[in-house]
Amino acid sequence: EYKKMNKQWSVVKTRKELPIIPNGVGVCYAVEINGKVKIGCTKNIRTRMATITEQLIKYADAAIGCIAYTKPHINYKGNERLLHSHFAPKRKDSTELFEMSFDYFLENIPTLNLEIDEEQSGYKITSADMFLSSLFPAYTVYLEKEYGASFLDEQIEYIVDKAEKLGSSFAPFE
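RESULT FIELD:
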């Protein structure tokens, strides 16, 4: 649907499709709200979208639409400021809400510098992280229902434990 999508971003239609973000990094996001776009950043996009949804229902009788988010990176706060600056002419007062359509946002996203600096963050993306992040958008719901695993550490521990019992290991890519 979003064919001209910037490769740094992904778009989902529901909160259930959102990934769990590894420790030490965060994402920038844009969420469609009543024909406008809220731009922000977070370390936990699933929780953040749940909070926004609750606030919209409680105070505005509204719901979120599509959600765009970046690949995880350490300089997400700086990139949020860059996005706010880039779309400043469309900003509503001093909020994080911008008077533009979601499509306009997607068509006009600037290229961001997504840094993953192991020395600064103490975080290293491993093959396990890549494997888990590819599973979690759909698999997280199953784990939460079946095993009550609601935190990333519990989910990683569960999957790694199962994999080790099957004779697999998660060695980082060289």
